[in-house]
Design brief:
Layout lengths: L10 H30 L4 H20 L1 H16 L3 H12 L1
């Protein structure tokens, strides 16, 4: 039996964990692409412009508030792992303010 180091990385496990995040990050630009393709069949340039503006606003909000997701995930995971509900709430409140 092979002893495995706690620092050894199993690529398959990482991929299983990362796959939903990868799909989520790919879905945001694809949403604007699909909207443009559907509205593009209407034949009106003003509609395509409106969809482009809407897609830009959505992307700005999604990526603009992404710091909450990226900046607090690790801290909240640590607090949950140590079963410290008070710290989970405190981290959430600090990130929202």
């Amino acid at each position: 039996m092979k002893d495995s180091s706690p620092y050894e990385v199993d690529r398959r496990r990482v991929l299983v964990l990362a796959w939903p995040i990868i799909l989520s990050n790919l879905s945001t630009p694809l949403l604007g692409l699909v909207d443009t393709a559907v509205i593009g069949n209407q034949g009106n340039a003003a509609l395509i412009g409106a969809v482009a503006i809407g897609a830009m606003i959505f992307s700005f909000l999604f990526w603009g508030f992404g710091f909450l997701r990226m900046g607090t995930t690790g801290l909240i995971a640590q607090a949950r792992g140590s079963k410290d509900k008070k710290e989970v709430k405190a981290t959430l409140y600090r990130s929202l303010l």
